[in-house]
Amino acid sequence: MGGRLREALRADGRVDGRVDADQLVARLEAIRRFLGIVDGKLPDTPLVPARTLVERAGTRLSLSRDHTVVALAGATGSGKSSLFNAMARMDLSPVGVRRPTTGVTHACVWGPLDGGTRLLDWLGVLPRHRFVRESLLDGDDESTLHGLILLDLPDFDSVQHSHRLEVDRLLGLVDLVVWVVDPQKYADRVVHGSYLREFHRHRDVTVVVLNQVDRLPPADVDRVVADLRRLLDSDGLDGVPLLPTTITDPGGTEGLRGALERSVAERQAALRRLSGDVDAVVAALDEMVGAPGPALTTGDPAVATLDRALVAAAGVPTVAEAVEQAYRHRAAATTGWPLVRLWRRLRPDPLRRLHLPDRSGDPRDPAESLVAATSVPEPSVADRSALGLAVRTVAERAGAGLPSAWPNAVTAAARSRLGDLPDALDRAIADTDLGMNRPRLWWRLVGGLQWLVTLAAVAGLGWLALGYALRALGLPELRHPMAGEVPVPTLLLLGGLLAGLLMAALTRPVARWAARRARQRAEARLTGAVTKVGEEYVLTPVRAVIAAHADARTVLEVARHR
Q: Are 110 and 147 in contact, with CB atoms under 8 Å apart?
């Protein structure tokens, strides 16, 4: 627009604030992104106005931008239809005294109808109630209103409920509303409470006319106008144009006509109306979003409580104890006296009893996933209760301070995968490398020494037995070499037995100490695996809701910026 229109004054003397179309589209796109972010996280009902706005705004902006839709809204007897005819300078809308006077919406289009037909179809104005205000006789006089579509709405206080529904529908679609009140009912509570007050965010596209001022004594006109101004200010409509009108005076509608001419010339009414709608929707959405939510860090006490509950529910203490027992069992079976190893190996391995295979982090066979992963005992009732309480605590901690339905969304997210949690914990236990997949080197060394001393004892025993056998048969007696005062065979036998027992005695405390270390190592690995399950099945869904809340706040800030 040219500089003159940019500096155009409204009827109340304020400088018009222009709405940038690209900025408006960006705000609408931000609302659309907001709806996508919160989809499935917030209830649908509070989001209906935002969804409706995005759809309606897209349709309105795609239709004729050269037309300005103005609605005359008023109660029965306000002279709304007479004012409509006076503005059109033609008798288009029926005027009467019966209630309701206006039952259907009439439309008058200034200038060619091209481009306005689809707009009128969208508005739902029937073709037989559309009129074109284009005449060769007064074309120049009406040229300043070319592009105006003036609607005469049904009476909003009609006894016909369908009429009120039609008024409410169109008030949500038009670009500018001219509220027509009369001296007798200008302070009506329904007019102000149910309609005017609801338009406080649309002051830029609202005009109020006090019609039929000819019925007032000239001295009372200013007083009534001032009282109506006071009521409008209390409705939040301070600064909206307030124009006295009458159709009995040839110049009685010039103020209104001038306001409509300015609106048509600026081509801003549709953008301002949508901008006001965006303001209203953003204000409602802002209440649903509120302040930033708390960060749910790994060191948070609620997360630590969850990890402990998961450890207990997964049976980590049971598995860790089995690892310690298995270590001692396997160490004794490898380092013990060879004569008792077979007996030890006949005893069941503690890890085997839990169906915990020796694995070193290799992927499990797909066939194993078709059956129960382990035989770790099911969590007790107390463990399950503690886990449920821990999940709820995490949800409450993450949702603390969030408004509206966000805490419910956080709780739903925290519980969304609880049904899969037992199997996931079982798989995590089964897939964890417990560090028991191969014998320790020191086991082999001690075991080798045990075999060596055992063989020495057996050799000594055999040597002695051979000497006794020869003596019993009367054969020449073997002369045993001596080690000091002790025969070597005897030394081999006794020394082998004593060395074996001594190594077994010395190895036992080492094995117990190493078993405790193995338990601690396995417990740390199992805890890490279980913590990852909690991260995936509980914390990640919760953090997704918190991230959605943060993203919603970000895009809402874009939608808020005018």
A: yes
The pLDDT tens digits of the residues spanning 98-107 come to 444 557 899 9
**Which tokens hold the place of 181?**
């009140």
Count how many Cα atoms sit within 13 Å of the Cα of residue 519 in the half-sphere of its side chain.
20
| Residue 17 burial (CB count, 10 A) | 11
The enclosing H or E element of 21 equals helix 21-38
Cα dihedral: 51, 52, 55, 57 (round 10): -120
For residue 2, the SS3 value is coil
**Structure tokens belonging to residue 318:** 């049971």
Band (298; pLDDT cuts 50, 70, 90): confident
Q: Which residue carries 């909206």 as its tokens? A: 240
In 3D space, the residue among 452, 369, 436, 414 whose CA is nearest the CA of residue 546 turns out to be 414
For residue 158, pLDDT over 90 is answered with no
pLDDT value for 201: 86
pTM reported for the whole predicted model: 0.75
Give the separation between CA 494 and CA 479, rounded to whole angstroms. Answer: 19
CA distances from residue 193 to 180, 201, 207, 267, 562 in whole angstroms, order as listed: 15, 15, 17, 30, 28
At 440, give phi and psi (nearest 5°): -80, 155
Cβ atoms < 10 Å from Cβ of 321: 15
pLDDT digits (tens, 9 = 90+) for 307-351: 999 999 988 888 888 888 887 877 777 777 776 666 666 677 667
* Dist CA 441 CA 435 (whole Å): 13
End-to-end CA distance of the chain: 19
**Helices and strands in the chain: count of H runs, count of E runs:** 21, 9
Cis peptide leading into residue 439 (ω within 30°): no
Name the one residue in this structure whose structure tokens are 């077994």. 504
**141/144 Cα distance (integer angstroms):** 7
The structure tokens 């009609």 sit at 158
